[in-house]
Amino acid sequence: MCGIVGYIGKGCAVPILVDGLKRLEYRGYDSAGIALVENGSIVIEKTRGKVVELEKLIANKEYAGTLGVAHTRWATHGVPNNTNAHPHTDCKNEIAIVHNGIIENYKTLKAYLEGKGHCFTSDTDTEVIVHLFEENHNGSLFDSICMTLSEIEGTYGLVIISKNEPDRMYAARKGSPLLIGKGDGEFIIASDVAAVVKHTKDIIYLDDGEIAEVRRDGFLVKMANKEKVSKKIQQITWDIEMIEKGGHPHFMLKEIHEQRSSLQNAIRGRLNPNQGTARLDGLLGYMNKLKNTSRIILTSCGTSWHAALIGEYLIEELAGIPCEVEYASEFRYRNPVVRKDDIVFVISQSGETADTLGALREAKQKGGTVLGICNVVGSTIARECDAGVYIHAGPEIGVASTKAFTSQVLVLLMVALMLGRMRSLSKEEGRAIVKEIESIPSVIEKVLKNDDKIKEIGLRLAAHNNALYLGRGYNFPVALEGALKLKEISYIHAEGYPAAEMKHGPIALIDENMPVIAIATKDITYEKIMSNISEIKARRGWVLSIVNSGDVKIKEVSDEIIEVPESKPYVTPIINVIPLQLLAYHVAVARGCNVDQPRNLAKSVTVE
Ligand code: G6P
Q1: CA 424 vs CA 291, 316, 323, 409, 429: distances in Å
Q2: What's the rounded Cα separation, in Å, for the pair 238 and 595?
Q3: Tell me, what's the pLDDT at 244?
Q4: Residues forming a β-bridge with 157
Q5: 3-state SS assignment for residue 195
Q6: Ligand 1: which residue has its CA nearest to atom 3?
Q7: Ligand 1 mean position, distance from CA 264 (Å)
Q8: pLDDT at 346
Q9: How far is the CA of 306 from the centre of ligand 1 (A)?
């Protein structure tokens, strides 16, 4: 979703701001813009389209300003066009702002401001903020910011500059992430660490309600009542190589191929082969609660929700604790029952998804213990949970989540193992699971070797407009995830189903134009899924099956197969999803789609 970059320092702001915007492109957006304090005036350049369009716009202009803000906008109020693009300014063109989030009472405020003579140039909710700054300005921009923030309802990550204060940049946060990168005589404010990491690893995360005043030589963080807040400077561990393509044509392909190492990073130091268990340090303070809980709720969105579904199967099988999985967006608004001894796991790659954050707060407010499974260190969800586990997948830039998914499932497997060992899972059983987990990275390596064959199949699939994915047991959520990957990046309509449900509806869709992708690796439902495939073949369907190496039975009833090594059912989701990720990737490339930034989607969904 929208991205923010702000710069104050000694250097020329434009290249730093534009580079920052490029680093945020992966989040999804439809227009881009920049505002500078240049020779005592505010200069704005903005355009519909990608950052490359903005670059063209400013290519022959020379800007020397050392204070500026920049933005990539994902349209919410008003179509994506030049005037709705951020930054926005007041009537006198003295103040410029960029904003992430949604102002809910903007209509009332707009009518009030128009009544006071303010002229609006855009259809955005954001523009009311800058006019309110102007309206409330009584000598101090900081005071006007405080007053304005008390009048607006909704969420914001805001960065503000004024031509009258060329030595200051302001930032304010409520519900939309913002952080400050501290350099040498310069500061970069951004909505995402990816825009900052090239320049500094010293990060200050802003919390809700805080307003930062940043100068070239330092910064102050205050609350709206002017009370000072002392902030910690934290070191990030990511570096610039981690957010570059490293020779791959797309981030998504790079991230798929990184899964051997991302999974190794999730495992490192967390297994105890002797005791046959896992040790998750982030949860140590909650071991008693985990041991005694009578119910676990898992909540998340999108791909993370699919990981949660697998988590339910894992925890119920290995630990025998009743689990429920909820879409975060439903959980937060349906008055769910959360009891004091319930453990609620919130799962989020970005740690910023608005609905997941809402569910977290709802669960906390109801007295549940909330534990996070996150990728982005220092993210809002990671900070607001009672405790949690990082998946350590490294930055995921491709909008379609891949390596984060497998690491989430792996962490959930380790959680289930740990919980199981606290209950009735024997040491021997635990040891066997540890061994199986340890072998995952090398199995992944083998699966990735199928890439060429999957590409070939992908070329054929690319001609279709629909696809069905089938799986059972642990692989039902994998079918959902395979279908989600395909629709997200290739725009082919795809659905995932538990294979046995076929005859309750979807089988009516089967003909030679409906490709079916069946996950048919060996587990207790193997024979059943073979029958399901035969039923499809009997109706002239085309079937691609994911099978274990050397399987002949399913091969006989399928049109195409992709082989993966045989493993225990509880690790198969991590393995079987890899060919489906590659398949979606190659289909999307063959259809000429923008794989890393699919239309209408955002990496981090920070609005409801
Ligand atoms: C967006 C992304 C998905 C992701 C979902 C949840 O829709 O495009 O890839 O699965 O948000 O995101 P989270 O960061 O909370 O896992």
Answers
A1: 11, 12, 17, 22, 10
A2: 23
A3: 82
A4: 100, 173
A5: helix
A6: 302
A7: 22
A8: 98
A9: 11
Strands (E), 501-569: 515-519, 542-548, 560-564
Which class for 189: exposed (0-12), middle (13-18), buried (19 or more C-beta within 10 A)?
buried
**Residue pair 160/149 in contact by the 8 Å Cβ criterion:** no
pLDDT digits (tens, 9 = 90+) for 95-127: 999 999 999 999 999 999 999 999 999 999 999
Determine the Cα–Cα distance for residues 178 and 192; give it in Å rounded to an integer: 7
pLDDT tens digit sequence for 283-299 = 999 999 999 999 999 99
**What would the 3-class secondary structure string for 315-373 be?**
HHHHHCCCEEEEEHHHHCCCCCCCCCCCEEEEEECCCCCHHHHHHHHHHHHCCCEEEEE
Short-list 121, 22, 23, 25, CA closest to 78: 121
The answer to whether 366 and 224 have CB atoms below 8 angstroms apart is: no
User: What is the position in ligand 1's atom list of the atom closest to the CA of 353?
Assistant: 15
CA 316 – CA 323 distance, rounded (Å): 7
- CA–chain centroid gap for 260, Å, is 20
| Two structure tokens written together for 574 | 């991590």
The CA distance from 528 to 503, in Å, is 13
Q: Which residues contact 184 (CB under 8 A, 6 or more apart)?
A: none
6 pLDDT more than 90: yes
Residues lining ligand 1, CB < 6 A?
A: 301-304, 348-350, 353, 356, 399-401, 601, 603-605
**Residue 607: pLDDT above 80?**
no
What residue type is assigned to position 327 of the chain?
A: Y
**pLDDT, tens digit, for every residue of 218-238?**
999 999 999 999 999 999 887
Tell me the pLDDT band of 4, cut-offs 50, 70 and 90: very high
Provide the token pair at 369.
């213990």
502/536 Cα distance (integer angstroms)? 9
What are residue 189's phi and psi, to 5 degrees? Answer: -100, 140
Residue written as tokens 């996950």? 519
Whether residue 268 has pLDDT greater than 80: yes
The token pair at 431 is: 């040891």
SS3 track for 443-504: HHHHHHCCHHHHHHHHHHHCCCCEEEEEECCCHHHHHHHHHHHHHHHHCCEEEEEEHHHHHH
The Cα 113–Cα 135 span in angstroms is 8
Cβ atoms 459, 560 nearer than 8 A: no
Q: What is the mean pLDDT of the chain?
A: 95
As a whole number, mean pLDDT of residues 320-330 equals 97
pTM to 2 decimals? Answer: 0.85
Torsion of CA 101, 165, 198, 205, to 10 degrees: -50
Catalytic site residues? 2, 603
Alpha-carbon gap, residue 488 to 490, rounded angstroms:
6
d(C-alpha 279, C-alpha 275), whole Å: 10
pLDDT of residue 503: 86
Best residue among 326, 349, 360, 374 to mutate for probing ligand 1's pocket (most ligand atoms within 8 Å of CB) is: 349
Tell me if residue 4 falls in helix, strand or coil.
strand
Give how far Cα 345 sits from Cα of 319, 368, 415, Å: 15, 10, 11
- Check whether 75 has a pLDDT greater than 90: no
Largest CA distance in the chain: 80
Section 481-505 average pLDDT = 95
